[in-house]
Specification:
317 residues; alpha/beta; TIM Barrel; two-stranded antiparallel ribbon; 10 helices; 21% strand; disordered N terminus
Length: 317
């Protein structure tokens, strides 16, 4: 994301995994309801997962980011905090005890990525297993904002997915609302399809070019353009909308655009009507109105809003 300071699966993630089958055509008539999983930067001490869940009732989050540490192919939070850090793990366990679930995101804006630090598919698969086992989840999100050895990465994801049934999502950069994802993101997804990895595609609908006056309209147009690109990669899948995610950046964006509360309601209505697989946003730590009219910040949205108001709106899915 632009701000990088960004066992068995439960029933909800089994459903999400089922909707993420992109590499083979689906014949199912039923689609699972969209899932909302806002990103939360767990390297920051607040807000905690439990704080947000208690305030909103929402209990599904994407944890950012599991990265390589200074020793190499060893997963850690933000590249510096041990994966088994008690503050983070205790918070995850408390959320899970409330019936909550988490996705673990790797990659992001800063790195160092496990995906380009680990030297082989076997080593990377081992790092992914360590993440899943430590956190007790079965969903990985690979946030691609740098060049990665995509064939090796997809070999590792395929290996873990075949072993565990792991749900995999790729979070990808958007070039423009009428263009969709950038060419490199499409290249990574073509590699995923070639390696038989079942993926959900989650475009980062932030910081892209648009001529539309409404940023809410532009975000939805970018998602629809991404879907057109997906149809070129998986032309025989009739249910691609259920393999689509959308992740805007709430409040003020670096390009001067503002994702407002009304845009969030518009996006939720569109997601529900089109039965897409996932909604997320960057980030829960910004989901407050403590700096209205300010610049882009990792700790507030820059607009007037209530605490965790975007989380509550997205949770209406």
């Amino acid at each position: 994301m632009m701000l990088s300071s960004r066992k068995a699966a439960s029933t909800i993630f089994v459903a999400l995994a089922a909707t993420a089958v992109l590499s083979t055509p689906s014949t199912a008539d039923d689609k699972a309801a969209p899932v909302a999983a806002p990103y939360i930067d767990v390297t920051m001490p607040s807000p905690s997962l439990v704080d947000v869940a208690n305030a909103t009732g929402h209990k599904v989050f994407t944890l950012a980011f599991a990265l390589a540490d200074s020793t190499g192919c060893n997963p850690s939070w933000g590249g510096t905090i041990p994966l088994n850090d008690s503050r983070i793990i205790d918070d995850i366990r408390a959320l899970q005890a409330m019936g909550g679930e988490v996705v673990v995101a790797t990659g992001g804006a800063a790195g160092p990525y496990l995906e380009y630090t680990c030297g082989s598919a076997e080593a990377l698969a081992g790092a992914y297993r360590e993440i899943l086992d430590t956190v007790d989840t079965n969903h990985l999100d690979v946030d691609v904002e740098a060049t990665i050895p995509q064939d090796m990465v997809n070999q590792a994801l395929k290996q873990v997915q075949d072993e565990r049934g792991t749900a995999v999502s790729y979070t990808m950069r958007v070039l423009g609302d009428d263009y969709g994802m950038d060419p490199y993101s499409v290249q990574v997804l073509r590699s995923a399809a070639a390696h038989g990895v079942d993926v959900l595609v989650n475009p980062m609908t932030m910081e892209f070019g648009t001529s539309r006056p409404s940023w809410g309209d532009a975000v939805i147009a970018a998602a629809e353009s991404t879907l057109r690109q997906m149809r070129e990669i998986w032309p025989n899948d009739p249910n691609l909308t259920s393999r689509l995610g959308v992740t805007p950046m709430i409040g003020r964006n670096y390009n001067g655009k503002v994702f407002e509360l009304a845009h969030a309601r518009q996006l939720v209505d569109w997601a529900r009507a089109n039965q897409i697989g996932l909604l997320a946003f960057w980030s829960a730590g910004r989901d407050n109105g403590s700096c209205p009219g300010g610049g882009v910040s990792p700790t507030c949205s820059g607009i007037s809003q209530g605490s965790f108001e975007f989380t509550s709106i997205f949770g209406q899915l």
